[in-house]
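[job 0412] stage=complex_fold ligand=zinc ion status=START
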Amino acid sequence: MSDRPDLKQALGRLLGPAAPEIGCDACFEQLDRYVELELAGQDADATLPGLRPHLDGCPACREEHESLRALVGGEQAL
Ligand SMILES: [Zn+2]
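[job 0412] stage=complex_fold status=DONE, emitting structure tokens
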């Protein structure tokens, strides 16, 4: 998924300097926790800053976030 550092760098330049953003690897590592906090009604963005800006700028991780939310949310609803 993240074996294209050149492409990621090019994209980063394209998007310009924004909020300090984490990479896909770090995003993926923290996504479980982020979704748990979200579903618990806690401030996930305060606990894991950088994740939301990354999700906003990365369709792949956003999709992963959506499906994880559906998965975890579905489990909790059962
Ligand atoms: Zn990503």
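The two ends are 32 Å apart (CA to CA).
[job 0412] exit 0
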